[in-house]
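Hey,

The postdoc asked me to send both predictions to you directly instead of through the lab channel. I've kept everything plain text so nothing gets mangled by the mail client. Protein one:
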Amino acid sequence: MISEVSLGGHWRAPWRDRSDGWWWGKFVKEEVPDDVAKNRTEVVSRAIDCGMNELVLTEAEECLCYGAALKGRREKMIVVHRIPFGSADDSKLCPRRDENCNVKAQLYNVEECLRHIGTEYLDIWRVQAKPLFNGKNLAGWTFSEPQTKNAWIVEDGVLVNKGRAQRYICTKDDYTNYVLRFQYRRLGRRKGGVMLRLAGSDRSEPKCIHLYEKGDDFDRIGATDFALKEHRDTLAFRKLPEKLWNECEIVLNKGRLKVKVNDVPRTTATECEQTPGKIGFEASGGHVQYRNIVLIPILSD
């Protein structure tokens, strides 16, 4: 059983003389300084005494520090290697980068983590979901055209379209294989849409996979200059009343696409063209709102 409170690998030094105050700043020849090893050993001991049994690590230097602190008592802690923006050995191996979303790169990542900790196994290896929308501003997003900026704002952690049919907003980064989850609601009759593997965002009709609504929420898949085969195998669906938040999950893996709303399958497609692209949201002249937009990368073979 995992304790309710876990010990995280990040911490700050009481003084600012090592890597701008971060204790796990790059170590020379991967050697953990004596004062750091002593400090982390004392922290781990105190955590164990308090009943904590989960240790969550991210960066290579964290693995080195806590590896030293766990010597002789590895079995006392459930060790979790969490992969957010960086990795255990090199931020360039982050699986959020398309070129690193493959088993080979991440096996190497895990092996480096094990080497740094000095252990033969990890208890949990976890890829953290990437928040595409931070709930504060539109950092990481771009607009289909200048006037679109006037149609999208952020209010109370929500991405809001003000009811103007001015094309779409999309991510600056490209993605290929992933699970995309978000919440949405409509304040009116008009509907929204999602654009996947979007390319050529400067075009009036960009190349993309387009999820839209014919009768119910996200029950159709369209395409612009995009090869795919749609399967309309939807189940009976009851949309939530206006002003309530709906949950949408989109799984786009290689050539297959699956869409669910409120845990009900909506539609699927196969033989989708496999190419990196942006993720876009639109509102067809209606007040549509989105929030909690996160992406989980899918590793390729």
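Protein two:
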Amino acid sequence: MSANSRQVGGSHYSSQYQHWDWCIAIGLHYLLSAATKYLCRWRNKNGLQDVEKAGHYLDKYIEVLPIGIRDRSTLSRQFIAAETQRWLDTNNITGSERVACWTMATWNDRDDLIRAREAINAIIETYRNDESELMHKHHQENFKEAVYQARQRYIADGDESIHAKE
């Protein structure tokens, strides 16, 4: 299944010519890609907040334009690794998030990108498992509360035998 044949969350990207395909085709810089992404989806997703995000990304691009946007093809692997390490450390990015970001920043071949996707999948799976555990705990707490309420009703009705069995 191709990435274009599915969407994660919502239905705001349903065009035959996807935004990311356009960004790739014209080599659009990340900041402009993000700005245009928010701008083209705002009516179908988050309204004004998305427009504000688009403006924020554009502001950042304008801000860095005078110092020059680096062409990645001219950067050494050592520079990319050092900058990536600095960014990960500065932002306290750990675990699978760190693996995915590091791999996406320093990839050499398709296998590296697949490893990054596997790290992202691990994050999703962990989140879903944690969410499932929280739901289970919530149901257990609701059950305990229901038992407590039933005991209180029995006591109020004069049947203290259920309380005595504890």
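Summary for protein two, as requested: Residues 4 and 18 are 7 Å apart (CA to CA).

Thanks,
C.
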